Amino acid sequence: MLISLLCIAIAIFFSWHKTLRTYSFTIWVIAAAVSSNYYPTYFKEIGGFELSNLIIPLIIVIMFGMASTLSLKDFSRVITMPIPVIVGMICQFTIMPIVGFVLVNIFSLPIEIAAGLILVGCSPSGLASNVMAFIARADVALSITLTAIATILSPLLTPLLMKIFADQYISFNYLDMLWSISKIVILPTAGGLLYNHYIRGKMSWLDELMPSVSMVGIVIIIAIIMAAGQQYLLEIGFVLVIATALHNGLGYLAGYWLCKLAGMDEKVCRTISFEVGMQNSGLASGIAVELGKIATMGLPAVIFGPVMNISGSLLASWWKNRPIEDDVIANP
Q: What is the pLDDT of residues 195-238, one digit of tens each?
């Protein structure tokens, strides 16, 4: 109890401190992980209501919040920058599934947890990659476009990639998974686009509130899934964290250097590096819940989220201090 209270107290302090506020989300994630690991029963049900039933609604809210930052022009940019978008999509939906498949075999992960790590790799990128692209002085417009297109393609490509790379680990129906992802992605994305077009800017309090709601939702999801999978975490937690960190880091490296080999400029390489390495772990969690595998397939997703946010922040800050030559010339 003392450790949990200490983590929560630190998270509250970070949330109120003007300088440290940037890191408060990471501390809240740690607090949720620690608390759910030590006291899992409090995060499984309340008054007979299973808290796992909250995960899909929360993910829909998070997806809506992400989509509310997008507009139709983010999709139309594919016409003005087709080569970077095509290269980015190829990297997005090839590198991470392959890396995930290789890692689960190297580490000999339990079958359903192995499927969960591959599932993270088969998911699209998320909003976090756009934030990191901005910090790193990469191509934010391209980042947003890649996230938007990958999200829309995910109902078709994620089940297909899972069939190719994870069929030996878990049995599922392609059409059922397609429908599950569509419910989580298409409807909230359409709603978010409508919000962006008709409402954004008219109710500033709601615009400011949505990012906080999304962050709270992510913290709750992490706590629920970690509580459900506590037994597996105790057994292979360290190995899974190492495998997840490698998955994330190799995604950055492969995304960056493959773009370099393809002749892309530095801004594009940095952008695609984030798009490949930072996956929508929330969507992967939702798919695991839909498949009834929250305690196993869901674990890699909730570990991947904090890992990628920490590593992404470090990489973005490192790149920020190494400005691109063209930017230096344009802004002496």
A: 888 888 787 777 777 777 877 888 888 888 888 888 877 778 88
Domain enclosing residue 96, as ranges: 65-323
pLDDT digits (tens, 9 = 90+) for 100-144: 999 999 999 999 999 999 999 999 998 788 888 888 888 888 998
Could you tell me the end-to-end alpha-carbon distance of the chain, in angstroms, rounded to an integer? Answer: 53
Give, in order, the Cα–Cα distances in Å from 192 to each of 195, 210, 325.
5, 11, 36
CATH number at residue 98: 1.20.1530.20
Q: pTM (2 decimals)?
A: 0.84
Number of domains in the chain: 1
Give per-residue burial for 202-227: e unless 16+ CB within 10 Å, then b.
eeeeebeebeeebbebbbbbbbbbbb
> Considering the domain boundaries, does residue 39 fall inside one?
no
